User: Fold this.
Amino acid sequence: MEYERLFSKVSEDELAKLCAELVRFDTTNPPGNERAAAEWAARYLEDLGFEAEFVPHGESRATLVAHLKGSGDVPPLAFNGHLDVVPAGAQEWKHPPFGGEISEGKVWGRGSSDMKGGIAAMLVAAKAVATSGLSLKGDLIFLATSGEELDMMGAKSLTSRKDLAKAQAIIIAEPTDNEVVLTERGVFWPEFTTYGKTAHGSTPELGHNAIKDMMALLLELEKTEIPYEPHPVAGRFSMSINTINGGVKTNVVPDKCVATVDMRTVPGQDHEALLSQLDGIVKRLEAKIHNFKASIRITNDLPPADTSPDEPVVKRFLEVAQSVAPGVKVGKAPFATEAAVFVPSMGVPTIIFGPGDPRLAHQPDEYVEISKMTTSARVFAAVASALLA
Ligand SMILES: [Zn+2]
Assistant:
């Protein structure tokens, strides 16, 4: 098979070792502290001939951008992964979260699935590409970002880069159980606040009850039809009222109530239009309820991201992936990735594919299967060779 030479460089032992080493860097975000892990990855890549640079985010945080130079006859290809992880949480772990234990064919620890296993697979794929004597017609770019789990600051710091804007594709090794994911729903979190006037609870007519106004607002929100087209992969728009806070004491009329709502949008939905619909609800209630006063603040705003399955680079990726690992299919992921930053700002086709299990992400006793990392590394190496050599 044409990729045998590349595959001979993909070693299970090395994959497990690299993933375990990465897990041992505690990159819990906040605060992140990703710089040490980024420098560790840079050293590995520099030994292979990559040129590394860092985008600093303060003292202890950085995003790595490393280039393996090609002749420039074809546009570059980018591998991308985030270095930060979510907190280990209060639950007991059988395998310590930052121990990087290797057993039962798995690497255990926080971030093994999301997504240090994916980064390890990309590092080993980069090694296969760099050491197999291929002559590259385009650059292979390796991105290891900071801050994905909170505000995507690493990805955002890359959007003005010309080398990425002209890339054939950005491949993101988030946990998809080695399925190809092209679409993700957007994230839109409105926080509603209603304002009233306090009074003694025994004389409510002297005050204005902010909780009652919030009840009216939330009922109106539930009744309002949000227009969208269901998407064949991303599915439907969803909305869930998830927190509510108001009042101080049983005998005091509340002057403030705050509620937050988690909305997930599908490709085709415009967040500006959604916000003006929410503004419309407030205006309707202002006209209906005497002294009604409310404000809306958006606390998280990531547009839906959608790469077409008809993009030639996507077709090529699938073709190569299926020849390397028969059975690879197009799937969907429930979470948002850095594609939400890259796709709208740069329009670069973005393919999400990685060895982790999305159900284990953010869970105690997270692990990644070494055999799955091997499959991903082979796919990444073969795709890089097909697109760049
Ligand atoms: Zn992730």
Notes: Residues 186-302 form a domain with the Alpha-Beta Plaits fold (CATH 3.30.70.360). The CA atoms of residues 53 and 65 lie 5 Å apart.
